[in-house]
Amino acid sequence: MLAGVLGIAYRPLPDGSFSHNVVVALLDADGRVRATIDASAAIDPGFVQAILDLQASR
Predict the structure, then answer these.
(1) Cα three-residue angle 39-40-46, rounded to 5 degrees
(2) Which of 2, 24, 35, 44 has minimal CB crowding within 10 Å?
(3) For each of the chain's 58 residues, which pLDDT tens digit applies?
(4) CB 21 within 8 A of CB 38
């Protein structure tokens, strides 16, 4: 369920391990997902802005 909420795609491999993408999730103090980014991609200005917005709201 958590993988679905965070947008993590995964699949089991024949050797028992898993293949998956890597997602960085920004959570607020209440544990709500504020933004996510594919960690293998370039830095997303929207993600950076979400961090700054969350800091400003503290």
Answers:
(1) 55
(2) 2
(3) 888 888 899 999 999 999 999 999 999 999 999 999 988 878 889 999 999 999 998 7
(4) yes
Q: Which tokens in the block code for residue 17?
A: 């391990």
Reported residue count of the chain is 58
Q: Are 7 and 23 in contact (CB under 8 A)?
A: yes
Expressed as residue numbers, the domain containing 32 is 2-56
Number of domains in the chain: 1
- String of DSSP letters for 1-58: -HHHHHT--EEE-TTS-EEE--EEEEE-TTS-EEEEEETTSPPPHHHHHHHHHHHHT-
CA dihedral 2→9→41→48, nearest 10 degrees, is -20
